[in-house]
Each structure stands twice: as structure tokens, then as C-alpha cells.
Amino acid sequence: MRRQLMALVKRDLTLARKQGGGLGAALSFMLAVVVLVPLAVGPDLNLLARLAAGLMWLSLLLAVLLTADRIFQQDFEDGSLDLMTMTALPFELVVLTKALTHWLSVSLPLALIAPPLGLMLNLDVNQLPILWAAMITGSLALSLLAGLGGAITAGLRRGGLLTALLILPLYIPVLVFGISVSAATIGPQSAWPSLLILIAITLLCLVVTPVASAAALKAYLR
Amino acid sequence: MQKFANPALFLKLANALIPFAWALTAVLFAGGLYGALVTSPADYQQGETVRIMYLHVPAAWIAMFAYGFMALASATALIFRHPLADTAAKSAAPLGAVFCFLALATGSIWGKPMWGAWWVWDARLTSFFILMLLYLGYIAIWQAIEDPHLAATIARIVALVGSIILPIIKFSVEWWNTLHQPASVLRMDGPSIDKSMLWVLLVMALAYTALFITLLLVSMRSEIAARKLRNLRLSEIRES
């Protein structure tokens, strides 16, 4: 079983690397946001410092959302997903593995790069470690939810906008607690409670989303 | 429950019930609005603005109730394969969205004189706004997928995943220290609201519930009619 899953991870990672347009496009999108923000709100450094953490979270959120349809759509269209339902593996596990591979290939690199990019928006250097911790934790939940959105819209011709409508409300808890983790270093309260809630949300997603995504994909495959 | 799985029986029952449901709704609204606008006292702090509460609070309750109903109907469809459960969930969604909008709008109108702003980003308001988005997403699923069976299956999943928001809304005023006042009716140690206001509020809540049930029946009836029409058209195409 482990060998089959590892093969799946390897296949998806290879595809993500060779295909292009995944991480590269998401990263460029993030850079574009960083460039556009000072133009939109003005280059006042104090203002930017206050906004930086939130803006990096927002760009991470949207960048992950943009790649949501890559998780299942192509495999659904070319029939690979059909084959994966026929293996001895539980389909939920296959779905979870694909979402985790999406995390490894897109969300995690973005979460690692986002905090240093925030320095361009005058992010406080002392905030970096905590922002990293929050984003690495939260990005896993983002990937899992993106997988759910991708699964729900897998069989639709133009699912992109619908994915955003369905998944952005579910992203809000991650965003709220992610922000309160990074805000905690400025304020008096400790970051721990918010970080723990963020971890709890991620674990909840880890349990719920594979089941829901697998059910949605099975409905499309029938 | 399975007895009403037959759409013909359901239609017969709905046709018989709908006139009474309308009458009950009208009577309850007449009584409730009379109480809300005439007999109930003005608040010592909020003055006459408090009367908005009688429209606002029941709308919010029904908006949440409708989502709960939708999730429950979806679960019923998933577990028992009840053929009308999907129809019930589908019909409840636009109603819930309208009640949700009503709650947000009346709250906003109350908020302007009381808090000095149309909208504040407090936990209760924000979570209610998310509820509205969830309703819209659910409705969009039904519109985006052409095959009704497939749409029903996907919509069930969306409704069930989204139901996580309900406890968050309910407890948002207790978990976070917010501007929105905490619960004053549904709480462990009994209602803290004054008796003269409580009964009016409860009558209004019943009126809203009656309205929701009436509209749900009407909507389900037309949904079944639409399905029949679709099947007739399909068989016509097959024959020709």
C-alpha cells in the first residue's frame, strides 16, 4: 500500500514539476500582488508594515485557490482518476495523497516564500518565525480545502469561479486564526492559543475533506 | 417519513395544507406585528428602534434554521435515499438566503443609529455574512450542474460541509468579545429579556416559521412540477 501511495506522490510531483504553470504561476501571482499593493494603498512604510502580514496571507490564499483546479481536473478528464478508483487503495486515501502532493508542490513552497516577500512590504523581521509557523500549518489546510473545491467542481467545464465561491467561505477560519497568530507578536497576548486553534482546524480538514472530496469525485465518475 | 416519499401523496398533502399554512402565517404576522409596533414598550435605552428587533431576530433564527434543515435534509437524502429530501434541501436554500439577507439588512438599519455604522466586522456579523455566501454557493451548484441527480449528490456534500458554520455563528458572541449583544432568549439560565418583549418576539418567531414552512411547501410543489415537466419533455423527445 505504501509503495502504491509513494508511486502516486512521485507521479504527481513529477507532473507538477514538468508541466509548469503550477508553482511558477502561483509565485508570479504572489509577486504581482506584492507589487500592486503599494501602488494601491500608497507607499507609506508605516501603513504597509501594519498591513504586511494580512496581505501576505491574502496573497497565499488566492494563489492556492488559483491552483485548486489542477489537483483533480486533468486526471479526471484523461481518465487517470478512473483507474485510481480501481486500485486496492481506499479512494479517500488516494484523494488525501493528491491533496498532500499539492501541498508539497505548491502551497508549502509558497508558504515558505511568502514571509520573506513580506519584507518588501516592510514586514517586521521579528514577525518572520511566527508567520512561517502559522503559514506552514495553515497552508496544509488551504491545500486540503482547495482539493475539496477542485473535487466538487471536477466535472464542470468552467468551475473556476464556482470553486472560489464555495471555498473562500471555508478559507475564512484559516485566515482569521492565521492573522491572529501573526498579530500576537505585536500585541501583548501570546501566539500559542491561536496557533493551536489553527492546528486544530488543519487536523479537522485532514479528517473531513478527503471523505467529502472522494464522495464528490465518485459522483462525477459514476 | 418513507410514506411521504411518494411525490403524488406529498402533492396531495401539500395542496391541502398550503391554504391553512397561509392563513396561519397571516394570523400570526397580524398578531405579532400588532404586538411589535403597538403594544410592546419602547426600550429605555434604544427607544423606538428596539422594534426592529422583532423583525431582525426571528429572521436570523430562521436563516440558521433553514441551513440546519437543509443539512438535515441532505443527510437524510444521503443515508435513507429519501427521494423528496433533495427537493426539500434545494427549495430551502433560496428561502434561507432571503431570510439571511433580511437579518443582515435589518441589523444594518438598526446598527446605523445604535452603533453609528452600517456594518462592523464583528464575529457575529462576519459569520452571518459567511452563511449568506454558503447559501449562494449551494444555489450556484444546483445551477451549474445540468444533470439533476449529479447536482443533488454534489449539493448534499456542499450543504453538509458548510453546516460547520452553524455552531460558529451560535457561539460567536460567546467565544469572541464582540459588539453584537450575547444571546438573551436561548440560554441555559432562561431568557434574560423582559416578559412584555419576549412574548411578542416568540409570536414573531412562530410567524416567521409558519412563513418559512408555507413557502417551503409552495416551492417544493413547483419543484416537483418542474421535474415532471422535464420528464415529460424528455419522453416526448424520445418518442419523436
User: Roughly how many Å apart are the termini of chain B?
Assistant: 39 Å
| Helix content estimate of chain A | over 70%
Largest Cβ-defined interface: A-B, 20 and 20 residues
Element order of chain B: H for helix, E for strand:
HHHHHHH
For the termini of chain A, the CA-CA separation is 25 Å
The helix count of chain A comes to 9
**SSE pattern of chain A, N- to C-terminal:** HHHHHHHHH
Quaternary status of these chains? heterodimer
How many β-strand runs of chain B?
0
Mean pLDDT of chain A: 87
Walk me through the structure.
The complex is a heterodimer of chains A (222) and B (240). With 222 residues, chain A is an all-alpha fold. Helices cover 80% and strands 0% of the residues of chain A. Chain A contains nine helices and no strands. With 240 residues, chain B is mostly helical. In chain B, 78% of the residues lie in helices and 0% in strands. Chain B is built from seven helices and no strands. The longest helix of chain B has 45 residues, at 195-239. The relative contact order of chain B is 0.16. The A-B interface holds A 148, 152-153, 155-156, 159, 162, 165-166, 168-170, 172-173, 208, 212, 215-216, 219-220 and B 126, 130, 133-134, 136-137, 140-141, 144-145, 150, 153-154, 157-158, 160-162, 165, 168.
Keyphrases for this structure?
heterodimer; A: 222 residues; mainly alpha; B: 240 residues; globular
In short:
Chain A has 222 residues and is mainly α. Chain A has nine helices and no strands. In chain A, helix 3 runs antiparallel to helix 6.
